[in-house]
Amino acid sequence: MKSKGVRTIAIATALLSALGGSAMSAQDKYTVKVPGGLAFSEFRGYEAWQVVSISQDGDLFAAILANPVMIDAYRAGIPGNGKPFPDGSKMAKIHWSPKKMETFPAATVPGALHDVDFMVKDSKRFADSGGWGWAVFEYEAASRTFRPGTTADKPPQENNARALRSTRTTTRRCMWQRRPDSSSRAPAWTSMVCRRSTTS
């Protein structure tokens, strides 16, 4: 039991360190924008948002964060009460490559930053995509800079902010997956899930 507690503390410490480190860049990341889509500056201060969950997406680790508007909505019972999330709700999903923790090798923790995904609720601005806008910003470790995702990336990022995006063969929808045992006191969503389906 003691070992499990030490491991939990070690992982939590590494996550906090990684979140702090994600703010370090050789550029002013808030000047980066997806052409025709969302700007990084619309999510200024996301590193300090509340962490609602961590997950592993394939080969990457991820932390899901929500802004105060989103957290207040969770606590009010949304979406379980059938009401929609209010405009201004924002979420961030930060991806890192995993690594073994140097001081506690039994723990696998976030390593190099990979990318940052954002979602925002704006019913008027994104009326054609369910009210949600989406963007991904890839991190280039060599230059310590962010860049907007492109159609060459996996998954591809088009020059728009639609949460539902299509290429010639693939449709990708991003949504939040609900934790079955959640209560109204805590965020009920464990991960931002992006599913792909092949079309003809």
Draw up the topology in text.
Elements: H1 2-21, E1 50-57, E2 60-66, H2 68-75, E3 90-101, E4 104-121, E5 132-140, E6 145-148, E7 164-166, E8 170-178, E9 189-198
Antiparallel strand pairs: 1-2, 2-3, 3-4, 4-5, 5-6, 7-8, 8-9
Describe the protein in words.
The chain is mainly beta. 14% of the residues lie in helices and 40% in strands. The protein has helices at 2-21, 68-75, and strands at residues 50-57, 60-66, 90-101, 104-121, 132-140, 145-148, 164-166, 170-178, 189-198. The strands form two sheets. The protein has a six-stranded antiparallel beta sheet with strand order 1-2-3-4-5-6. The termini are far apart.
Q: Which shape, going by the Cα principal axes?
A: globular
What proportion strand? 35-45%
The Cα radius of gyration reads 17 Å
Mean pLDDT: 76
Helix content: 10-25%
Q: What are the segments in which pLDDT stays under 50 over at least 5 consecutive residues?
A: 6-10, 163-200
How far apart the termini lie comes to 52 Å
Summarize the main sheet. Answer: 6 strands, antiparallel
Helix-strand category: mainly beta
Order of helices and strands: HEEHEEEEEEE
Strand order of the largest sheet: 1-2-3-4-5-6
Task: Provide keyphrases for this structure.
six-stranded antiparallel β-sheet, globular, disordered C terminus, three-stranded antiparallel β-sheet
What's the short story on this structure?
The chain is mainly β.
